[in-house]
Amino acid sequence: MRYQLGIVGGGPAGMMAALIGDRFGIKTILIDDNPALGGQLIKQTHKFFGSKDHYCGYRGFQIGSILREEIAKSKVEVITSATVTGIYPGFILGLHHKERYQEVGCDAVIVATGAKEKFLIFENNDLPGVYGAGAVQTLMNVYGVFPGRRALMIGSGNIGLIVTYQLLQAGVEVPFLVEILPEIGGWFVHAAKIARAGTRILTSHTIISALGEEEVEGAVIAKVDDQFHPVSGSEVTIDVDLICLAVGLSPLSDLLWQVGCRMEFIPELGGYLAWHNERMETTVPGLYVAGDVAGIEEATTAMLEGKVAAISAVSHLLGPSDELSAMQREIIRELDDLRSGDFSQVVSRGLRRLYDRP
Ligand SMILES: Cc1cc2nc3c(=O)[nH]c(=O)nc-3n(C[C@H](O)[C@H](O)[C@H](O)COP(=O)(O)OP(=O)(O)OC[C@H]3O[C@@H](n4cnc5c(N)ncnc54)[C@H](O)[C@@H]3O)c2cc1C
To answer: What sections of the protein cross the membrane (predicted)?
Structure first.
């Protein structure tokens, strides 16, 4: 079977890209490895900020449902529980689906595979009870499973702060959140909420070890100096059965390495990613990126990038037009506006470095 547009990854970026492709009459296939479309949105229970156009006031999982319903009404073909394992010459997507290897041919491809969680090295970090924040969100918010009784959160970026709040809402105690930097990384509003609920946020602190034989029974934390070395004598043992790591994400870029995109290391955007311009075009003609795989940000920018990538793909397939260019310019302007705030300075710096590389 051949499609004009193949989209790998059915999170906010991929779903939005598919809807744009469909709007222009492009025969589109959307492939995701989870049982349902939505990506990270399905586990996000907090309300989004921003404008009405960006689903302000809706919770992440509600945005996922809205987009899923729109896709169900469209002509987009969807394959879930299918992992794309390679992109081969002629844009043949190799996928593992229902215990079988299958191939789908496309004229253009958007890779919107999202991100993976970074891990942290410390003694006993392989004990059961040490989780990534994403896994904790999935257990609690998707499967309704209690991940522990008393948690230590590592990392004060927005994911660490939001997941701490979600743990507290679920009835899990979170006595401490430790952050190695001297300042809290995420938004004040999220930090204030968890502080009011009783979580002590310890900046310039880190985890030294997890304690326990068969599973986590405690943790040792310590202060760090200005070189981020633990300060001897400052160690404190705390009673927890869950250690939750929220120490950053990196783009899930394996397919982009494999297909031969030029890759760049941009720490501000999470690590290695495919070089792309603001139209989300990579160095492989006809192949585009969108969302966290194009640099770690958040769901609203992922949706806008999905639109931009899809418009580039439509121009490639049908030929450029004034309508497409104007529409794309407008969305790029929206992205610039969203990235103009203080909290987007790091991302904006990373994007400038990426765009400046010839
Ligand atoms: C663990 C985690 C927790 C987060 N929590 C929050 C939060 O609380 N609040 C917030 O605002 N933002 C949060 N974010 C950020 C936000 O969710 C993301 O920025 C946004 O979802 C990115 O959208 P995306 O479409 O690029 O990727 P995703 O939403 O990650 O979707 C990518 C999809 O592609 C699928 N996929 C990957 N590889 C393949 C493959 N080879 N074949 C088929 N399918 C594939 C993935 O399984 C996934 O379904 C979180 C991100 C992560 C990773």
So the answer is: none
